Structure to design on (924 residues):
């Protein structure tokens, strides 16, 4: 079905040469150049409306190709054109911004920073739109297609919510198609159905007014480091469950059907442990599989901990303070704003006599999101992916993303349901050296997009 | 009994003006000047043998005044002529190296760094020796008195053991009199009977090979910070006892008599908490008082802890490593070299699956030491202190020091029992700004020394 593969290759090669690292202010001109390049490519593809939207940070790109049918549904594609830093550069086999083609066991790969996250995922939509028009013989797509490709996702999307609010009317849509994820394996058509949310917290415990000499005071006054260890040890029970009262109250339980569907996702735990995880054992909430633990269950994680003397040698003190940074991954229908009060109450109740506790939870956080497995739009997505992989919609598996992005902002500000269509693979080394994309996955992504616009065009979602 | 009080005042004034801070290499010439000053003062007092003993660090001062009786016991006085740094200088009411006399509620005080720790404690021996000779009408003391005043105590006495070994023959003695401690209160004659020992350790826990993204991996792989918190929380049981198997095996239990004697030491717990401890509550091993906890019971203390992300903001990682520095205060007859194997075995047994543990215990440590309450030398000390305070030997209370110094080295290298005779008070602010000495306590110390030489001289300890 696909023509114009050479165009895709040429486009990606040019775009991936632009080091659009949003986290490093020194690369701000490159991020702007990346936005300009994408705008030009969208115009070349035929989008009649293409605009660069500035923000107080990096610019986003907006494009729109209206359907000729006035009542056609509107789909908004979300992606990002900024990329992760490349540290450490010495671990890259090929220079990160010189895209290099490598023949791998599953087909040709393209190695570069951003190859899949997220330039590859955005680029397949250009090819997909051409394929859609060619296959349907139309001049305009069967749905009005909008794209919003931001430039700060890898920096936490600090201005994204404001951008959505500012352009709410232009962005109005019936469905959001998030293209920043992937599938379970090269030969396994699958659709992401949920992303976890996030709430951060910092705990400070204070004991003596100053660091005390442990010879004179040790064993007779409370040590904040001991108190912190006891507190954090008590954050999980012996079943690996988070002990904050109320933490699980709003968690949508996994239905038997969802668990059955998740269990069909091929997952080689030993290979996973040996891969980027490089861990010696699995661990987690009793009664759940690793995929369920990372995708469908909330967690509490200590991200950092410090206090007392941490230099060379030894200093025999009872320190004045102890600190920990925590993050909580949330699942539907937990709310990030509930975590602060839950944690604060629990710390107050569990801190020993003589220790003063302070719990800081930054405002915001990220809400979890989940797709309705039985919605008409989800049906269209499954049919589109099935066709792209030459299989039945019922063979398309459901997966869940453990991480958190600005997707919840899209739901909140635009009020439209989410679909996820991405061409990444768990083995693509995103955010790591030697990021790659499997080119046949991009072709599948483009085909699925082409089918999706046709499938959605046959519906009336309003 | 005392003449020559003006000499003591003049001597202290001159000596305390020398900033002999051993921890700061910039002050090395001052530490040398302090040694030279002390040697000259000892010669002036009449000691026929006075030598400065160099070390790879700061010099020590050795002096000897042989008794005319060939079979008289030999007493070795231990002290130090270096002082603590003065940070923060802005908290000093009077400049730390301009000794200033202040009239306090308990009598005249002298404020200066080193006023009691340890120049005051050493200086009273000069006066004590003169008083001893004057009171007994002798030309030579009733015991052979040796002094070893080191210059690196506040820097951990790194060369002290080697110095003892090198001069073993010159230092031979029947009893060591440590003058680097104090008494319970101005009106409370007391003798220190024990010092705690020390063993240091560092624990490193390793989980994933690199810091992992908590969105993708959180809740499914073991987090070394969680494992460290669980480990350190389990280091004490709910009675505040250290849980290392075998840790208490060699602890000499407190006898009812010792507990009764300790309970007679006046101790205002609320004042103690409000003082340098500045703590909000006491804490510790169930069944023991605060004085017992700090003086007579071993402890495990976490001195530092770190791992993961500790910078500003948040980084949602499962960190690769977690670290803790620990120190153990030991009491007779525990041995510092036992702690490493005990800790290592316990960590191995308690670390969860998927976490690798490394326990580092530096060689050495400090052995605890304790005096025999019923030895003849202790009897002499109690009588001497009793006479200095115009009271009965049975009214002299026993106290214990929570900290650790080079005293155990003296026992080990010289094979002589320890007595403690010091004129400090818990309120003297040693190691802190505004260190002071209560001058009447120095006079009592000198009197006690004078009596002690006479009392010991009446014995034949060999
Ligand atoms: Zn991305
Ligand atoms: Zn001292």
């Amino acid at each position: 079905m696909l023509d114009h593969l050479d165009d895709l290759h040429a486009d990606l090669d040019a775009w991936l040469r632009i080091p659009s690292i949003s986290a490093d202010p020194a690369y701000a001109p490159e991020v702007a150049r990346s936005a300009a390049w994408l705008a030009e490519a969208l115009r070349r593809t035929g989008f009649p409306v293409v605009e660069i939207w500035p923000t107080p940070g990096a610019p986003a790109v907006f494009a729109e190709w209206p359907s000729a049918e006035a009542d056609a549904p509107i789909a908004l594609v979300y992606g990002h054109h900024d990329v992760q830093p490349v540290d450490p550069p010495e671990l890259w086999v090929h220079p990160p911004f010189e895209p290099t083609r490598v023949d791998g066991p599953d087909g040709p790969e393209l190695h570069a920073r951003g190859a899949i996250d997220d330039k590859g995922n955005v680029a397949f939509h250009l090819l997909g739109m051409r394929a859609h028009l060619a296959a349907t013989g139309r001049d305009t797509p069967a749905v009005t297609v909008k794209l919003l490709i931001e430039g700060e996702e890898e920096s936490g999307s600090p201005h994204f919510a404001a951008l959505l609010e500012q352009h709410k009317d232009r962005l109005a849509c019936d469905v959001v198609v998030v293209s920043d994820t992937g599938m379970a394996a090269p030969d396994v058509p699958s659709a992401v159905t949920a992303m976890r949310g996030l709430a951060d917290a910092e705990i400070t415990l204070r004991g003596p007014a100053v660091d005390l000499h442990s010879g004179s005071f040790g064993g007779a006054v409370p040590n904040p480091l001991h108190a912190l260890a006891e507190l954090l040890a008590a954050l999980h029970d012996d079943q690996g469950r988070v002990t904050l009262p109320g933490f699980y109250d709003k968690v949508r339980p996994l239905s038997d059907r969802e668990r059955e569907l998740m269990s069909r996702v091929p997952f080689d735990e030993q290979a996973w442990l040996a891969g980027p995880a490089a861990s010696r054992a699995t661990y987690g909430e009793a009664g759940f599989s690793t995929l369920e633990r990372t995708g469908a269950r909330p967690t509490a994680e200590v991200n950092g901990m410090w206090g007392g003397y941490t230099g060379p040698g030894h200093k025999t003190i009872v320190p004045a303070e102890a600190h920990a940074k925590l993050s909580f991954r949330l699942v539907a229908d937990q709310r990030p704003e509930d975590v602060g009060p839950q944690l604060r109450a629990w710390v107050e109740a569990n801190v020993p006599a003589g220790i003063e506790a302070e719990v800081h939870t930054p405002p915001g956080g990220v809400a979890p999101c989940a797709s309705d497995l039985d919605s008409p739009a989800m049906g269209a997505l499954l049919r589109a992916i099935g066709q792209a992989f030459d299989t039945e919609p019922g063979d398309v598996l459901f997966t869940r993303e453990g991480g958190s992005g600005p997707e919840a902002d899209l739901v909140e500000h635009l009020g439209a349901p989410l679909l996820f269509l991405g061409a990444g693979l768990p083995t693509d080394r995103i955010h790591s050296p030697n990021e790659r994309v499997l080119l046949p996955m991009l072709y599948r992504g483009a085909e699925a997009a082409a089918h999706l616009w046709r499938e959605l065009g046959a519906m009336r979602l309003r």
Remarks:
- Chain B has a mean pLDDT of 93.
- Chain B has 13 helices and 18 strands.
